[in-house]
Design brief:
With 386 residues, this protein is of the alpha/beta class. The chain folds into 3 domains: 204 residues, Ribonuclease H-like superfamily/Ribonuclease H (Nucleotidyltransferase, domain 5, 2-Layer Sandwich); 107 residues, Arc Repressor Mutant, subunit A (Orthogonal Bundle), CATH 1.10.10; 44 residues. 48% of the residues lie in helices and 13% in strands. It has a 6-stranded mixed beta sheet, sandwiched between helices. Strand 7 and strand 8 form a beta hairpin. Helix 7 packs antiparallel against helix 8. The protein starts with 8 loop residues before the first strand and ends in an 8-residue tail after the last helix. The N terminus is likely disordered.
């Protein structure tokens, strides 16, 4: 695996929703969305020109605004189709305000904006080594300066070594307008105003749509569920807990492989929560996702140095003929057991045949699975080797 790419990336950030967390108030949005549109520096000039042509076509003498499109679903789909032809990736953060206690410190607008933006920027800075963040400005310039200072105080200094922040007016930056479009569309889909398939044109551009706070509610009537359904719930609950625990523990690691493993877990969580928890991901999809973040490695390396090592860290990963995933049910775990059984048991059987042969021909003097040399392996061959 190579180190993350040194290619500079421009990151354009905008939001959708309001920072008020009491959603019982009239007109307050249930969700708050931050979207970061990421463009490689060497592609920026050409992509800006293409983006401006889309703006001129659909918003002459104006700018792309999700709010201007509103409920015109056919127009939104058409614009998203056009935007999907541009070369960019996006990472988005969805905040479900209904899960935030109204008496928490986040009830204050500035505290909410600072805290939620910190989550976004921390993930960006952990994933990319050289970025130029250009965000739509919110509030007064005094607040913007205090926000930049807040980030530097709350995040490890090493994350800022090759990164800069600018807060600007979106009129002059087409990709901030694209971020506005994406954030607004995601907000409408999560709120149930528009169907989720509206996001389909963006799927190949999506790094992650992350959700905060993390959630996995216990199903109603849990105690009355039959055993298998209760076990299914426990499987997915513990899979999420282990994945989140790994991210929390190792997200600030200095080790490049650990960075790649954290990125892989984030991707598996995203697919589990936002795409389809029952769908397996081909390993090549995980490899491509890591490559988008600058971690270049072969599919075999992904299997050996990312997925296998995650299992060593007790991150539960189910596998089968179609790929890998976080386990959603007991069936997923059994699929993993089936995979292990089909691969490991034949090896152990062949090893035991070989071992027995040389025990016989040497009158017991040669044990190729010497319990002193291979204590762990000896546990899995015949009883006399235990």
């Amino acid at each position: 695996m190579t180190l993350p790419s040194s290619t500079a990336r421009y990151v354009f950030v905008d939001e959708s929703g309001d920072p008020e967390i009491d959603i019982t108030k009239q007109g307050v949005s249930e969700y708050f969305v931050l979207s970061a549109v990421i463009v490689d520096q060497n592609k920026l000039q050409a992509q800006v020109a293409r983006c401006r042509s889309i703006i001129d076509r659909y918003f002459p003498k104006g700018q792309i605004k999700s709010s201007k499109i509103g409920g015109n679903l056919s127009r939104r789909r058409q614009i998203l189709d056009e935007v999907s032809e541009l070369s960019f990736k996006h990472y988005s953060q969805v905040i479900d305000k209904s899960l935030i206690l109204t008496e928490s410190g986040l009830r204050f607008r500035r505290s909410f904006v600072k805290f939620i933006n910190r989550i976004l920027y921390e993930n960006l800075l952990e994933s990319f080594s050289d970025i130029r963040v250009i965000a739509d400005q919110h509030g007064t310039s005094e607040f913007m300066l205090s926000f930049a200072d807040y980030l530097r105080r709350r995040l490890p200094q090493r994350l800022f070594e090759r990164s800069t922040f600018d807060f600007v007016n979106s009129d002059d930056y087409p990709f901030i307008q694209v971020a506005d479009l994406i954030a607004g569309t995601i907000n409408r889909c999560y709120a149930g105003v528009d169907p989720m398939d509206v996001l389909e044109p963006l799927r190949m551009h999506t790094i992650i749509i992350d959700e905060w706070p993390p959630r996995f509610p216990e199903p109603l009537g849990y105690e009355q569920l039959e055993d298998l359904k209760r076990f299914d719930y426990l499987v997915r609950q513990h899979a999420i807990e282990k994945a989140n625990g790994f991210i929390e523990e190792l997200s600030l690691s200095e080790d490049t492989y650990e960075h790649a493993r954290v990125a892989a877990v984030r991707y598996l969580l995203y697919h589990f929560r936002s795409i389809n928890p029952e769908e397996y991901l081909p390993t090549i999809r995980v490899r491509d996702h890591l490559a988008n973040l600058g971690f270049y490695m072969s599919e075999r390396t992904v299997r050996q140095n990312v997925i296998a090592k995650l299992r060593d860290h007790s991150v539960f990963i189910a596998s089968g003929p179609k790929g890998i995933k976080l386990p959603y049910s007991v069936t997923d775990l059994r699929s993993f057991v089936t995979t292990v059984n089909s691969q490991v048991v034949p090896y152990l059987h062949r090893l035991e045949l070989c071992r027995r042969h040389f025990l016989m021909v040497t009158n017991g003097d040669l044990d190729i699975v010497d319990p002193q040399e291979f204590p762990d392996l000896a546990k899995y061959v015949s009883g006399d080797a235990k």
